[in-house]
Design brief:
mainly beta; 6-stranded parallel β-sheet; about 80% strand
Length: about 160
């Protein structure tokens, strides 16, 4: 399915490709386009230059500008990623990630701005805002040291 502009509602599709895509209340296996707007859509893969998802779910989302509002995504990658009231185990951005009242497992970006969010691990050059992080750099160093010690101990015991 390839066209310049698509407007789809209440359908179950396999692959959708177009420059401008607007999908509502549907399920799609793979979406690829320039400007992608999704409302209440479930998808395995979403790829585009600008992606805006509202109340959706996807396994992999990749775009230059990624905006998620009340969404669940397994992997969210982009140049600039915005998460509002969303959940994602992994969010990686080249430049900037904005996390607003969301839960994210691992966040990695050059600049991270957070507002009342929770993360497991946050890696960034500049981090600002209110965030609850389970593992900081000290905890990560301690976990690595303990894991290395245990691995070394088992290696010594295995030789005997």
């Amino acid at each position: 399915m390839s066209r310049n502009k698509l407007d789809i509602e209440s359908r179950h599709l396999d692959i959708v490709e177009a420059e401008f895509i607007n999908i509502r209340q549907s399920t799609v296996r793979a979406i690829e386009g320039g400007h992608v707007e999704l409302q209440q859509v479930g998808s395995v893969s979403i790829e585009g230059e600008r992606i805006e998802v509202t109340q959706g779910a996807a396994v992999v989302m990749k775009g230059d500008n990624l905006s998620l509002n009340q969404c669940v995504g397994f992997v969210a990658t982009g140049g600039v990623t915005n998460l509002n009231f969303s959940a994602a185990p992994l969010a990686v951005s080249v430049e900037e990630t904005n996390v607003n009242k969301s839960a994210v497992g691992v966040v990695a970006a050059k600049n991270i701005t957070s507002n009342n969010s929770t993360t497991l691990l946050m890696v960034g050059q500049n981090i600002s805002g209110n965030v609850t992080t389970l593992i900081d750099w000290r905890s990560a160093a301690a976990i690595t040291a303990v894991a290395g010690g245990i691995f070394g101990l088992f290696s010594l015991l295995k030789r005997k």
